[in-house]
Specification:
8-stranded parallel β-barrel; TIM Barrel
């Protein structure tokens, strides 16, 4: 068995891409998208005719002017995001994660409203709500939005997880799953320690996922852990047995070609009782954030990156509208 086949017996494998051809070829259980992946998929030359058609369709529904154009572009991006999600769902058996506009990351009510809008659009497309994960940045406001959505039966994937305080708050909120960003933490560690190579045994990103997984299993949380943002095969294999792993197509191909024995590194049976259960108020969460240099640096940067990706798509649509 290939390394990928072995990994699939221990962990649910998710494709971290919006590339429909790659998803069709790789046949993952689930798929995740984010604004960067959506923009990359939709700004491909092959998609320009579809972008123009969607833009024209929405533009014909209103009057003209700069405000109208901005409003139309927002609607077009939302429509295209759902369209990509629907196209992905035709190729997989499981769920797709669809991310809320990152500009709403610090607004609980607006995040909830956007999630409802997305779920209504999916319902009109005939997609069962069980197949959708609403993806939200793990700010305190985003976590509170997810808590309310989960109570309504709308399942959420909390992303941009870098700190244990985020993971704890997400579990207490009852979210369906979280996405800790392993590779981005490693990138930060390399910069801070001025090291180009860090062995996986010393990898703070890998350690953060291991610690969160153990904490969840020890205390019986139903929230699942989905490792994300990998920089190497070694990072992935160090988390074999994690509930889910979302992996880019190039690494999935590498794993499929790799002929080594994969040892399970994580399982519920391995969880010890070494971590005390903690619950965080808003003030305690904010204090923990202020004390966590990794999250302080990477969470705003991640949100800004997703906003920039969305702006890139908006600019491409603006050019088509002229």
């Amino acid at each position: 068995m290939s390394a990928l086949s072995q990994l699939q017996t221990m962990t649910t494998i998710v494709a971290d891409t919006g590339d429909l051809a790659a998803i069709a070829r790789l046949k993952p259980v689930d798929a995740t998208t984010n604004p960067s992946l959506i923009t990359k998929a939709l700004t491909h030359p092959d998609k320009q005719a579809m972008l123009a058609d969607t833009l024209n369709r929405f533009s014909s529904q209103g009057s003209h002017g700069n405000d109208m154009i901005d409003n139309v572009i927002d609607k077009v991006i939302d429509n295209l995001t759902i369209q990509v999600g629907c196209d992905i769902l035709k190729l997989i058996e499981g769920r797709v994660s669809t991310e809320v506009d990152a500009r709403l990351s610090y607004d609980t009510d607006a995040t909830i409203a956007k999630a409802h809008q997305y779920m209504d659009a999916y319902a009109k497309a005939g997609v069962a709500k069980e197949r959708i994960l609403i993806k939200i940045a793990a700010t305190w406001q985003g976590i509170k939005a997810a808590e309310q959505l989960e109570k309504e039966g709308i399942h959420c994937n909390l992303t941009l997880i870098f700190g244990q305080h985020q993971a704890i708050a997400c579990a207490d909120a009852g979210v369906t799953l979280i996405s800790p960003f392993v590779g981005r933490i490693l990138d930060w560690q390399k910069r801070e320690q001025n090291r180009q190579i860090i062995p996986v045994a010393d990898d703070v990103g890998v350690q953060s996922v291991q610690r969160t997984y153990q904490y969840y299993k020890q205390h019986g949380y139903h929230t699942q852990v989905m490792g994300a943002s990998f920089r190497s095969i070694e990072q992935i294999l160090a988390l074999a047995g994690c509930d889910l792993l979302t992996i880019a197509p190039n690494f999935l191909d590498d794993l499929a070609a790799l002929d080594i024995e994969v040892e399970q590194q994580l399982s519920a049976d391995m969880a010890s009782d070494t971590m005390a259960k903690v619950s965080l108020s808003a003030d305690e969460f904010n204090t923990a954030y202020e004390q966590d240099r990794i999250t302080q640096h990477l969470l705003p940067k991640g949100i800004d990156g997703f906003i920039t990706a969305r702006d890139e798509l908006a600019n491409a649509l603006a050019k088509l509208s002229k």
